[in-house]
Amino acid sequence: MALLHFGAVPFDAGLVVLDKDGTLVDFAMWNLLAAAWVDRLVEGVEGENLRAELCRNMGFDYGKRYSDPQGPMAIATTAQIMAIAAGTLYRHGLSWPQAEDRARWAFDTEADIPLASLIRPAGDVPALFRALRAAGVPAAVVTTDHRRETEETLQLLGVAGLVDYLLCGDDGVTPKPAPDMLLHTCRQMGVEPVRAAMVGDTLGDLIMAERAGAGLRVGVLTGAGTREVLAPHADVVLASVDEIRVAAS
User: Fold this and answer.
1) pLDDT digits (tens, 9 = 90+) for 160-208
2) Distance between CA atoms of 97 and 52, rounded to whole angstroms?
3) Which residues pair with 6 in a beta bridge?
4) Which of 19, 135, 164, 195 lies deepest, with the highest CB count within 10 Å?
């Protein structure tokens, strides 16, 4: 379709697939949400044992507001993290129905923390999508987040009308790091995986790309992953999506 430059690496792309959180949006929002979830989960429970176990199981450092780049907060779906929280509550004496109810309540933070207050673009996202559209390169967003929140985020970023295909964690496709979400997206767009560039900030994104046979695996450093974690699984690691450019004709 068009020659793109991912940093110094050229790629003749038929499709660019982008993760959302940590790639289009600063990942710091998830550390703030994780802290709020933990606070709500431990509300009314004495001692720090539950808090410490929740954070350990979620892959989250409460004090540093930091997510392990190889842990659930960085890679898992919201539903998977909620299940981890419910399982932890169950091991601390709640019945399973009580644990599930409390986890659902704890994760429902929209009234207290509106999504619009959390979203910080991880670069000039509208400029990237406009450039891809002008070059005739389809752009897809593949995320483990829920569809409702994802659609709202894309509206807030100003790119909802520029996304050619959207696949979310609650759409019924086996999530990252399995190859299914990327393969499904390529099938829907009529593009062979070898013509697709996958851009993401976590091991889940890059391992999915490896397993699906993506033509280019691109890591970005605006999310949970570090260069040391991402580089072994990436063809190139960029500071942000701002380093993706359409080649001059």
Assistant:
1) 999 999 999 999 999 999 999 999 999 999 999 999 999 999 999 999 9
2) 22
3) 9, 244
4) 19
Joined tokens for residue 176: 């990252």
The tokens describing 195, both together, are 């013509």
Q: In this structure, are strands 196-200 and 165-167 parallel, antiparallel, or unpaired?
A: unpaired
In 3D space, the residue among 208, 247, 229, 213 whose CA is nearest the CA of residue 18 turns out to be 208
Position 78, amino acid: T
- The HSE-up count of residue 48 (CA atoms within 13 Å, CB side) is 4
Place of tokens 């802290």: 35
- The per-residue pLDDT for 80 is 92
CA distance between the termini of the chain: 13
The model scores a pTM over 0.70: yes
CB half-sphere exposure, 15, CA atoms < 13 A: 28
Q: Report DSSP letters for 180-204, one per residue.
A: HHHHHHHHHHT--GGGEEEEESSHH
Helix, strand, coil proportions of the chain in percent (round to 5)? 45, 20, 35
* H/E stretch holding 141: strand 139-142
